[in-house]
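User: I'm new to structure prediction. If I give you an amino acid sequence, what do you actually give back? Let's try with this one:
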Amino acid sequence: MANIENSAGKPDAGLVRKGLIQALFAAVLAFGMFVLYVGLKTDQNISNELVIVQRWGLLAIFVIIAAVGRFAVVMFAAIPGLFAKTMRVVVPVAVLMIVAYLAYVFIREQFWLDLLILGGLVVLAALLGVLIKYVLLPAEERRRERNVEAERLGLPLEASPYETHFLKVVLALLLLYPVMAVALRGPQGSLTFVDNFGIQILIYVMLAWGLNIVVGLAGLLDLGYVAFYAVGAYSYALLSSYFGLSFWVLLPLSGIFAALWGVILGFPVLRLRGDYLAIVTLAFGEIIRLVIINWTDLTKGTFGISGIAKASVFGIWTFDVGKVNNFAKVFGLPSSSAYYKIFLFYVILALCMLTAYVTIRLRRMPIGRAWEALREDEIACRSLGINTVTTKLTAFATGAMFAGFAGSFFAARQGFVSPESFVFLESAVILAIVVLGGMGSLTGIAIAAIVMVGGTEALRSMDFLKYIFGPTFTPELYRMLIFGLAMVVVMLFKPRGFVGSRSPTAFLKARKAISGSFIKEGHG
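Assistant: Good question. You get back a string of structure tokens that encode the predicted 3D arrangement of the chain. For your 524 residues, that looks like this:
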């Protein structure tokens, strides 16, 4: 077998030739795939005529990225350690170039506050890197050495600071997030950060955690999860509009209604698994959406339901401007919609904490272990005497209940619901978050939601990209392309997701010998 590196430590010529050939094939394939979607664009001119806009420069960027990426994959796969060596050089240079370019754009456009924030983030990242390298990593190495010695002596192991304090730190930062946003940007300026980034991300975190019960714990592929989201939203909208019920009454009712629909979906699919289950759940989601569109007497069809009542602070203070107990008037604050968004942020944060707490508790209960057994092997699960009917129904109902909570919150936040908010793409995005984060991992799913949803919102504000790709470039239109690339990269390097884990909740910490009495009785 020929060596892939010569005596000088450089890649062999045959390997380079192979990489260049595959890079050429990747470039041709990328050109064929993107020429009609990226290279050419239909638009209307001033005479309202349909014209074709050519964007060969943007197409060339996509082709070059595909070719360079394929060449890099070939080289990294063949030469051990090359990826780490390359990243040590590429990452600092790329970070410095991005920071320098952003500073240039901000200075030219006189975005002084943004430049100050960017500089603060860079300094904070540098300090964090120094802290991790010189304090946390050595402490973690010493802890591992002590645990090795403790395991040898049979003593209890020492928990890492990450396991002990990570969730507390994250919760503290989330509680302070709206306060910091108001302090830096003011009440009106904080709306983008509190609403578009904070509330939007937490809604998808809650939805993904609910779907994680069905897909990650029970192993049931559900492609119609957005239907329960729609049930919760329309339950709140209709009952609030027709009966005038408050948010705090309709929040649990919406979850109960969605859970009932989860049981209704669960019964027909009890005997289905895998692809067949996915097809039926997909059809269920589309049926719910079509019913909402066509039942115009009740749901108003595609026009949607508007004027939905806002949530109140337990009925004590309201956020309606015309009422006496308006929150801003009672506390003598200037009139602003930011206070309502901040209140909603803490409400959805509490709902996410409730979802996480219930999920963790259920995993440690017999029903949670039954879900895990069902996920690993349904036939073995039945042979152990577990009732798979009730196990599946509880998984569907529990996951649907959290989607109903999120749907009712969505209706209160928007004040308007329509069928366009509950298309199949929403189910696909939620499922992608679960898969990318790691099925069964609450932390990984939260990270994936921040990356995917937060990345989408960040693209909307990246106007500086127009200086690179042209003034007609619209970054948010390429979010699905970025999601696809992210999923490919994650599946290549982290097949189980960011923080994927399939370890069971209950397991034996040490092997034990089987008693001879069990063997004699036929149990061994």
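You can read the tokens as a compact description of the fold. Here is one thing that stands out. The chain has a mean pLDDT of 79.
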